[in-house]
Amino acid sequence: MRKVQNRREFFAAVLRYGVLAGFAAIGVIAGVKSRRLVKEGRCVRGGVCSGCDVFERCALPEALSAKAVLDGGGDASGR
Ligand code: SF4
């Protein structure tokens, strides 16, 4: 049996799903922006590579240095 939705339930549902759609849009925009910044050669986290979402595919100097250290080869300065 189909439940009839009253006006209050309707507006609550509109608000609930509107907020969910807003959060999803913010996540998508943040992802697109971080990809664009990395493509432009700009860091998205202030050079703190630990835990950065784009670390694996990042070719910025900070990331290359961190990868060299993680590989056990020291950093780019030869230390
Ligand atoms: S991996 Fe490092 S250098 Fe690259 S965007 Fe992230 S924080 Fe910046």
Distance between the termini: 73 Å
Helix content: 40-55%
**What summary fits the major beta sheet?**
none
What Rg is obtained from the alpha carbons, in whole angstroms?
22 Å
**Care to count the β-strands?**
0
Strand content: under 5%
Bound molecules: iron/sulfur cluster
What's the number of domains?
1
- The assembly state of the depicted protein chains is single chain
Q: How do the SSEs run, as a string of H and E? A: HH
User: Count the helices. How many?
Assistant: 2
Low-pLDDT residue intervals, each spanning 5 or more residues: none
Dominant shape: rod-shaped
Q: What class do helices, strands and sheet pairing give?
A: mainly alpha
| Overall average pLDDT | 87
Description:
The chain is mainly alpha-helical and 79 residues long. The protein has one domain. It is built from 2 helices and no strands. The longest helix is centred in the first third of the chain and has 33 residues. It is rod-shaped. Bound molecules: iron/sulfur cluster. Iron/sulfur cluster binds next to α2.
